[in-house]
Amino acid sequence: MSAPSHIERPAITAHPLLTGAAAIAGALALAAGSEATGIVASYTFLHLSLALVMGIAVLGLNVVTGYAGQISLGHGAFFAIGAYAMAMAVGHAAAPIWIALPLAAIVCFCAGFAFARPILRLEGPYLALATFALAIAVPQALKYRHLEPLTGGATGLHFVKPDAPFGLPLSPDRWLFVLVVVVAVVAFGLVRNVVQSGFGRSMMAIRENETAARALGIDTARVKGLAFALSAAVTGVAGALHALLFEFVSPDSYRFDLSLAIFVGGVVGGIATLPGALVGGAFVHLVHRYADAVARALSDTFDLPLTLQPAMIYGVVLICLVYLAPSGIYGAAREMVRRWWMSRPNAGRKPAAPNAP
After folding, report:
1. Calpha distance 74→72 (Å, rounded)
2. If pLDDT is split at 50, 70 and 90, which confidence band does 14 have?
3. Residues 6+ away with beta carbon under 8 Å from 238
């Protein structure tokens, strides 16, 4: 039964532009302050950047899976394409980052649209299988010997990240953290606007019932193709940033495990929620970072008859999360806030009418 209309609900009232500007200003202040005082180490900024990069990648998947309802297990391929586009633009052509990043997005948008047009006629497990094949094929294609002058073959490409622009006195890890925050704000703002537009409503109509959407006159093939292309572009930008952070790309860095990690981040964070993408990206990065340490600590603390592997810790955490938070971490947190808000003593009361004059 729906809640009475007079019950107040918590809402975020901050304007998105103000939120984004505050995030960028906070990132710049944190980077500049830590550069001067050394209060936050450079490797901490690297890990913060990697968590945000994974959040952007999960956001890209969320567009096509969360809002358009199309299962994709191949977004690691677009992550790789974006990374190689950045490496070739900066390493081969010496392009500045402000050109290389949009170029990576355009390349991935075109690749996503070209791939989507023929395969989005498939549905369910057949679509998942086709995207799985893409995730397997792209790393192998990057090793193709006739492409070695561009891709570096199996050894990959090395390049040097540029210094901080405008003479900013920031180390590479710190200024790249600021760059990642700026790109994340732009990406989340773009996806938010798309989701709230008529095109976004068309995507969600297809997600709910494609036959009904087609009956309403929605060009489902065009909408799904553009959704997949936009999704690929956002994930490709994440790959480009990942390449910048490490100054290196190689085919073995973008195996199917990456596509699976992006998919897991989307499910764990919360499908079809923008904040859930950030939560899922942070989860994927933190679990990969600490699973090995947790496995060693448990093996040293308890006399276990078997050696714990990081994958076992990862699997146990996933099973617990799926059981305890089936709507994702963000969805579970939002539900807890809603329940708390509704349990307040005055939550169900109508506001008192003003006294008559």
Report:
1. 6
2. low
3. 53, 54, 56, 57, 60, 79, 82
Which residue do the tokens 């990862």 mark? 314
Number of domains in the chain: 1
Quick check: is 85 in a domain?
Answer: yes
Joined together, the tokens standing for residue 79 give 């992550």
**CA pair distance 80, 354, nearest whole angstrom:** 62
H or E segment to which residue 106 belongs? helix 97-119
Residue with tokens 């959704």: 227
- DSSP H helices, the chain, are 16-37, 42-62, 75-91, 97-119, 125-141, 148-151, 172-195, 198-208, 210-215, 220-246, 256-269, 274-301, 310-324, 328-342
User: What is the spatial distance between Cα 153 and Cα 155, in angstroms, rounded to a whole number?
Assistant: 6
Look at the alpha carbons of 138, 140, 146, 149 in this order and tell me if their dihedral is positive or negative: positive
Q: Is residue 304 part of a domain?
A: no
Q: Say how far apart CA 322 and CA 155 lie, in whole Å.
A: 38
Which residue carries 């302050």 as its tokens? 33
Residues 48/51/54/55 CA torsion (nearest 10 deg): -100
Domain assignment present for residue 67? The answer is yes
Q: What is the pLDDT of residue 357?
A: 47
Nearest to 112 by CA among 11, 210, 237: 237
Token code pair at residue 31: 């980077």
Residues 281, 185: contact at Cβ < 8 Å? no
* pTM: predicted TM-score of the whole model, two decimal places: 0.89
Sign of CA dihedral 264, 311, 156, 135: negative
Confidence band for 1, pLDDT divided at 50, 70 and 90: very low
**Are 56 and 184 in contact, with CB atoms under 8 Å apart?**
yes
Q: With 50 as the cut, is the pLDDT of residue 62 above it?
A: yes
* 348 secondary structure, DSSP code: T
Q: What confidence tens digit (pLDDT) does each residue in 298-322 have?
A: 777 777 666 777 778 788 888 888 8
Looking at the domain assignment, is residue 165 inside a domain? yes
Q: How confident is the model at residue 3 (pLDDT cuts 50, 70, 90)?
A: very low
Domain residues for 44?
Answer: 18-255
